[in-house]
Design a protein that fits this description.
17 helices, about 500 residues, about 0% strand, mainly alpha, Growth Hormone, Chain: A, two-stranded antiparallel ribbon, about 70% helix, 4 strands, two-stranded antiparallel sheet
Length: about 500
């Protein structure tokens, strides 16, 4: 018997068998179960990303450029190699890096090379989501994009086990993240109807998942790399990605329905071109993206120059004969995020109840200002310590304050994009939002090359000035941006 009814796609169809609408799902902490499917999927993906990122700069400095050490951090870490970077493993694509201009990849020293390569990698990770968001909006859909991206990234992590294909592995991670990152975040907003007051809270919970993965990863990847070798650390990151994909596939019945691309095209045609109001909102979001560049340039020093400080100028304890790997420092920021996030959520609810909660743009201005002020701690610590080694207090106190600033900006920005973006380009706009991190991360690598050219005190004062200036700029634009974004 023939029929003209379309074949229903279980990936996309809102009427697919077994799908449970968000309002019919079990509720946890006042949110549908689908939020926690996305929470754990993103947790494991971030376990993978931050586990690899925590190893990356040390891998370049101590191994890829010089083969100075087969393990991550022996009890007495070797000094940073001097001179220009070498290629002891015959890494494919190395000649291409040498061909790039110094303002892209600096070759003046191993430290500068590692800083600029680290910055370029983390930058490109946030550029490809623009393309991934467009592909998902127009052709493949958000769910398929997440799975495609996760598989490509897992392949990249496992490829890191081969020194020779180090740059190929970075390329796979960059491409995979482009598919994954914008399309997992927008699915959080899809669980809530327009105007639902739970949306900011949902993104804060989701952000806690990101940082739970970032917290746990370094204890696994860093320890495996320190004891058994680099390949084991990178391999553990790949396993984490696969676990996240399994959770996502088994829990997709709890996700918000996604229309097939034919339906999306029909809706877009019926809606016509973007209205003038739509374009005003898009322009306002783009303006915020430009201001975000400076925020991320300062924030991403955590994995760059702050990690170098943790490696070379911090006294790490030895507990029962086990020397704490310095890359465990990377777990402190995510630990403080999921510790402080519920407290800030309570503060914002109390402020909302009293009618004095800051706007989204106001929160972001606070966040950037606090980020900048956090580096006054490091500036003072560097003044006291000089070229010697000091207490854990300095980097940990700076990170504690920095984390408060991050919570005022990053999850709020994600929520804002889903609130005000025209629905049919929401994935693309999420990609644009993440692209501000591209420029910020690239700039972070460039700023990081100044670490050895300035006194450490002046370097950290520079970071403070950039963060505070960005916060002031956001405050200056608060009123016009609030109006353009419809009061958000």
């Amino acid at each position: 018997m023939s029929t003209d009814a379309p074949v229903m796609n279980p990936w996309d169809s809102p009427g697919a068998a077994g799908h449970i609408p968000p309002d019919k799902q079990p509720q946890f902490l006042g949110h549908p179960a689908g939020l926690f499917v996305l929470f754990f999927t993103e947790m494991w993906e971030r376990f993978s990303y931050y586990g690899m990122r925590g190893l990356l700069k040390a891998y370049i400095v101590y191994y890829a450029c010089s083969a100075a050490g087969k393990v991550l951090y022996p009890t007495d870490s070797p000094p940073v190699p001097t001179g220009v970077p070498s290629n002891p493993f015959g890494i494919v694509g190395w000649d291409f890096l040498q061909w790039l201009p110094d303002w892209v990849i600096s070759k003046s020293s191993v430290q500068d090379f590692a800083s600029s390569l680290y910055g370029s990698y983390t930058a490109l990770v946030y550029l490809t989501p623009v393309i991934g968001g467009i592909l998902a909006d127009r052709w493949i859909g958000q769910r398929k994009a997440v799975v495609i991206g996760g598989l490509i990234m897992a392949l990249g992590e496992f490829t890191m086990a081969s020194e020779r294909f180090f740059l190929l592995a970075l390329g796979l991670l960059i491409i995979g993240n482009g598919f994954f990152k914008p399309n997992i975040s927008t699915q959080v907003g899809d669980l809530y109807p327009a105007g639902d007051s739970r949306r900011d809270g949902a993104f804060t919970i989701f952000y806690m998942g990101i940082n739970l993965g970032a917290f746990a990863c370094n204890f696994v990847t860093g320890t495996l790399a320190a004891i058994y070798g680099w390949a084991y650390g990178f391999g553990a990151a790949g396993v984490g990605l696969l676990i996240g994909l399994v959770i996502y596939l088994f829990g997709r019945k709890y996700l918000a329905p996604e229309l097939p691309k034919e339906h999306k095209a029909a809706e877009a045609a019926a809606a016509g071109p973007l209205t003038s109001d739509d374009w005003v909102k898009v322009g306002a979001l783009c303006a915020l993206c430009l201001l975000n560049v400076a925020f991320w340039a300062v924030y991403e020093q955590q994995g760059n120059t702050m990690q170098t400080w943790a490696d070379t100028q911090t006294n790490w304890p030895v507990i029962l004969g086990f020397a704490i790997p310095p890359n465990w420092f990377q777990s402190f920021n995510p630990f403080m995020i999921f510790t402080l996030a519920p407290l800030l959520e309570m503060v914002w609810r109390w402020q909302a109840k009293n009618g004095n909660e800051p706007t989204s743009v106001g929160k972001m201005a606070i966040g950037s200002t606090v980020l900048g002020l956090s580096f006054l701690v490091m500036a003072y610590g560097a003044f006291l310590i000089g070229d010697g080694k000091g207490s854990l207090f300095w980097p940990f106190a700076c990170t504690l304050i920095l984390t408060v600033g991050e919570l005022y900006l990053s999850p709020i920005g994600l929520s804002l994009v889903t609130k005000v973006s025209p629905p049919r380009i929401v994935s693309m706009m999420m990609g644009v939002w993440l692209a501000s991190s591209f420029a910020g991360n690239f700039l972070s690598g460039a700023i990081g090359t100044l670490y050895d050219d300035m006194t450490k005190t002046n370097f950290f004062l520079l970071l403070c000035a950039i963060g505070v200036s960005t916060g002031i700029a956001m405050w200056a634009f608060n009123k016009p941006l609030k109006k353009a974004l419809g009061g958000h």
